[in-house]
Design a protein that fits this description.
The protein is mainly α and 118 residues long. The chain has helices spanning 2-23, 28-44, 48-55, 57-60, 63-81, 85-112. It has one domain.
Amino acid sequence: MDYINAFWVGGLICALVQILMEKTKMMPGRIMVLLVVTGAVISMFGWYEPFLEYAGAGASVPLLGFGNILMKGVKEAVDEAGFLGLFQGGFKAGAIGTSAALIFGYLASLIFNPKMKK
């Protein structure tokens, strides 16, 4: 049942984003920011953990999950360092995922020889 929940929740998130892209004039970058901020806000209210337990990878893989990770990092850093934690928490929490995306993207560009669209 875990796989089914992950599949339908992740699919629903992707379908809603696709509808948003098709029916509005929002640029993809703005939609991505909207997803990250939505994940952070849901996490701030404490609703993301139950959602994550139910949906598993369907909730953690989309950009909503990145917003949750950033918010968790900020909360932990504020508890440890006070006000300065607002500025360092997101960087510490998101560093591994961002680094992995950069490294694997670079390696993929070496292997597949990307070309500009004309």
